[in-house]
Amino acid sequence: MFRLNLSLFAALIALLSASISYGQTVNPIPIGTNGIIYDTAIDDGIMYIGGQFSGVGNEVGGLAHFTDPAATDVPDPGFPRTNAPVRVAIPDGNGGWFLGGDFSTIGDIPQAYLAHVLQDQTVDPSFTLVVNGPVNALALDGSDLYVGGQFSDIGGQLRANLAKLNSATGSVSVDWTPEPNAGINRLVVFGEKLYVGGTFSAIAGRQQVGLALLNKSTGTIDANHISLESGSATEMVRSGDKLYVCNPSSGGAGYSARHIAGLTSANDSPALSFPEANGPVRCLANDGLGGWYVGGEFTEIGGQPNSYLAHVLSNGTIDPGIHSNGEWTGVRVAVGKWRTLYRWLIHRRRRTSTVQSC
């Protein structure tokens, strides 16, 4: 009878196990789908997959970082992943990033809603303040970090939806307390001013709808600044001496600005040359030539039929070469050094929808 030496067999199994475990490496950025895969096949080095899904791509969590997007569209595998959406990301001025969103972990480290990623792509261990709700907006001005969202406590301090922090230590400014009565969507620093956009109807002790201008040092409000008639400022973009505001229905002080306005820093009056839209505007992207790509839920802009996506030229007229037929569900727009549209996701389907973000 053949007898197997158990000690020799155990050694053989250990050797095979070691060779197998060390012979396999896991792709740090796996490819995934948004549905079920039923079958796969490989032919001539190409893998084909079939199932019930409508999208396939790199799984990156709530944020993708591209080291050299001109050379490759594969995300950087070293950037820490979040377990939920990132709603805002701004550079820290030293090669790193401040991130805000809905997440509770980043890079497998418990850190909810607000985090600092260093230049070496590690999570800053000294930036550990606790926020008790989502962060939607960030603005950095020197050593001051302005944080907006839907929270009531940040860094152990009671703050309603808006706070000013020391960007290095995360300590909360004690005497900066505008206290808006609802959420903040956007923050833009403009000289000594801080423009605040959100769903609030009161801020800094004043009735002010959707849009406010604060003194960035004291947090007090500019009482002469116009307010929205209704709704909220869903997007704000600074360019030169103007601040472009999306989704206002009309301004205060007798100004009318349907869904989009360009405000001058001198007097906050909407620029009359900028075209109005007949539905909400959700996003703006500078075209690099003084004009703007505009996306939203409109079917007319500047008096011209144009659904959901439009290009406003530098002279305020509508570019006839950019037109959507209502089939766009999403668009990511970026302007490269050649001042042309060159990147991001355009997705189509066979029913009317809207542009949600740029």
Question: Describe it for me?
Answer:
The protein has 358 residues and is mostly beta strands. The chain has 1 helix and 29 strands. The protein has one helix at 6-23; strands at residues 31-33, 36-43, 46-52, 56-58, 86-91, 97-101, 105-106, 109-110, 114-117, 135-141, 144-149, 153-154, 157-158, 162-166, 184-190, 193-198, 202-203, 206-207, 211-215, 235-239, 242-246, 260-264, 281-286, 292-296, 300-301, 304-305, 309-312, 328-331, 346-348. A 3-stranded antiparallel sheet has the order 5-6-9, with no helix packed on it. β17 and β18 (206-207) form a beta hairpin. The longest helix is centred in the N-terminal third of the chain and has 18 residues, at 6-23. The termini are far apart. 35% of the residues are buried. The model is unreliable at 1-16, 18-22, 250-256 and 327-358 (pLDDT under 50).
Question: Any key phrases for this structure?
Answer:
disordered N terminus; mainly beta
